[in-house]
Amino acid sequence: MDSSRTVDDLVGLLGAWSAGDGALYRRLADSLRTLIDEGSLAPGERLPSERVLASALRVSRTTVVSAYDLLRSEGVFDSRQGSGTRVSERVAPVRSDGWAANGVGQYMYRNLIQKDAGLISATCMNTPAMPGFAEVVRESLDDLGPLLDEGTYYPQGLPALRRAIADFYSDRGLPTVADQIVVTTGAHQAIALVTQLYLRKGSPVVVEDPGFAGCLDLMSDRGARFVPVPLDDQGIDINGVRRAVDEHAPHLLYTMPSYHNPTGTMMSVARRRELGELSARTGTPILEDAAYTGVRHPQEPPPLAAYAPRGAEVISVDSLSKVAWAGLRVGWLRAPVEMAVRLSRRKLLADLAGPQLDQIVAVRLLADYDRIARERSERLAAAMDHMEGLLRRDLPDWRWRRPDGGAALWVELPGIDSRAFTQVALCHGLELVPGSLMSASPIGPFDRHFRLPVAFDAVEREEVVWRLSRAWRELDRHGPVGAPIPLVV
């Protein structure tokens, strides 16, 4: 592999490698050894040079040299003059677990699997249950009785929940029937099912730039070829979309109208209507992802599909995870009836059907959705106010735009590549997602950005900003912003 690509992949695979105790070089060696043990690094694979990896990780070259030397002494690495350092061919091959294809998943989700004590992860939105959630669960048990005698699966979802979701859309200006609904294990599965149906290797996909790394991963895993289109304050640039459709005949257009992740932009009504008309005119399918929510705009428009004329192929995805509780893995998709049938077959192959008890709870939550969403929005608006105040106080040179909605700030660092900053922040016990991983563009337009979730409690928000400030001072002590990146030993 090309060494520059290798170092980017390797940094992503390493994730929060510097968290924990012990000498830094041992932590690096342990993390590299783990990547080999889990199959993410294969026998014979070439590693970046000590100098290149040290620069990417923002540590001293001595740290990387010591880690490499330790792994050589254990027979894990081999080095030869002219061919660099490689994973030893003597290491038994292991089937990869899938992380190796792209480093984004490592940044976004690794800490969900591998908890590191003392590390604060700011990679995912924190969604504790809303007050009263436990009572809803208890009340839902009363609805369980009739299902206990059935002993059957519902691959498309419980009929009662599908009707409730159809009513949810109809009440928002998008007439819907239950046959258009497929219930999924969170919005993530819904998007995965859509990508499986529409995409194959080489499929062109129009995506917003920046975009949500987790969903870009799903499409990349199918071999998609991204056609990134920038955003403005009304959403994805419609002229850019038209050019992309004319030039590439995309198999799918992926967009997040309410609200865009990571920028928090809410797409205008005019832009929604233009996209719907474009789908009907050109036959371009649109995947509308509405699962990222939190702070909500008081005049939030109906879903994009509500503005699509007859003949447009729009699939809308949503979830209760960001509104009610992250642990309630109930999402859904709304599609034309014939596409809903085909997607339900994909769902059947994936897991037969979702848990029925969770879906019973979801029926009750949807009956009170507006109140729950309003309360979640109020809590997160207060959290965003607090986070913005802390940043203005301690990091006044940083820039961001108050988002229209969502649960994170899209922060721009003055004069610093966010990949460098995230490595320094790791050494201060804070895990961040650099902006470059939220973009499908090869030119790196967001290298100075990172996404900062606000949904921590007040004490933890104070701690997050304190660690951000320490990491920023770590850079500043070594000269003005824009000077050579300091090394952490």
TrEMBL record:
UniProt GO MF annotations: transaminase activity
Highest taxon, organism lineage: Bacteria
Protein family (similarity comment): In the C-terminal section; belongs to the class-I pyridoxal-phosphate-dependent aminotransferase family.
The name this protein goes by in its record: PLP-dependent aminotransferase family protein
SUPFAM superfamilies hit by this protein: PLP-dependent transferases (SSF53383), Winged helix' DNA-binding domain (SSF46785)
Pfam families associated with the record: Aminotran_1_2, GntR
InterPro entries, per the entry: Aminotransferase_I/II_large, HTH_trans_reg/aminotransferase, PyrdxlP-dep_Trfase, PyrdxlP-dep_Trfase_major, Tscrpt_reg_HTH_GntR, WH-like_DNA-bd_sf, WH_DNA-bd_sf
Keywords: Aminotransferase, DNA-binding, Pyridoxal phosphate, Transcription, Transcription regulation, Transferase
Residues of the HTH gntR-type domain: 22-90
SMART domains: HTH_GNTR (SM00345)
Organism for this UniProt entry: Nocardiopsis changdeensis
